[in-house]
Design goal:
This protein is mainly α. It has 5 helices and no strands. Bound molecules: hydroxy diiron-OXO moiety.
C-alpha cells in the first residue's frame, strides 16, 4: 500500500503525462495546418506514446491499492512562431518532465518507498531518451536553417522517424 502523499504525487504525474499527450496532439494540428505532414505524423505518434506513459502510472497506482484520479488538464499552447520554436518548446517541456520525475524518485527514495523508486526507473531512462530525441531535432533544424527547402527535408526526416518507431 502506497503512502497517501506518494499517491497524490503519482496522480499529479498522471495528469502531467496527459498534458504532454494533449500538447503534442495540439502541436500536430499546428504542423498539419502549416503543411508539415511529417512533423504532424511524428507529433501524433508521440502523443500516443505519452498516453502510454500515463497508463503505466495509472496501472501502477491502481495495482498498489491507490486510486488514480484524473483531474482537470490545462489547455496546451496552440500557436508557435516557427517549426524551430515548436520543437524548442517540446525540449523545454521534456526538461520539465525530467525534473518532475526526479522529484518523484527523490520522494520515493527518501520515504523508503523502494517499490515506487524501482517503478520510476523506467521513467528516468525514458526521460533520458525523450530529451535526447527532442534535442537532436532542435539541433538539426538549427543546423540546416529555416528556409523552405531545409524545412522540407526536416519534415521528410520527421516522417521517417515516425515510420521507424
Ligand atoms: Fe515525453 O515523456 Fe512523458 O511526459
Amino acid at each position: 500500500m502506497l503512502a497517501t502523499a506518494m499517491i497524490e504525487k503519482l496522480n499529479e504525474q498522471i495528469n502531467m503525462e496527459f498534458f504532454s499527450s494533449n500538447l503534442y496532439l495540439q502541436m500536430s494540428a499546428w504542423c498539419e495546418d502549416k503543411g508539415f505532414e511529417g512533423a504532424a505524423h511524428f507529433m501524433r505518434q508521440h502523443a500516443d506514446e505519452e498516453m502510454g506513459h500515463m497508463r503505466r502510472l495509472f496501472t501502477y497506482v491502481s495495482e498498489t491499492g491507490g486510486m488514480p484520479l484524473l483531474g482537470a488538464i490545462a489547455a496546451p499552447r496552440t500557436e508557435f512562431s516557427s517549426l524551430l520554436a515548436l520543437f524548442e518548446y517540446t525540449y523545454e517541456h521534456e526538461q520539465l518532465i525530467t525534473r518532475k520525475i526526479n522529484e518523484l524518485a527523490h520522494t520515493a527514495f527518501s520515504t523508503q518507498d523502494y517499490s515506487t523508486f524501482h517503478f520510476l526507473q523506467w521513467y528516468v531512462a525514458e526521460q533520458h531518451e525523450e530529451e535526447k530525441l527532442f534535442k537532436s531535432i532542435v539541433d538539426k533544424i538549427r543546423l540546416v536553417g529555416e528556409d523552405g527547402k531545409a524545412l522540407f527535408f526536416i519534415d521528410k526526416d520527421l516522417q521517417q522517424l515516425a515510420n521507424s518507431s
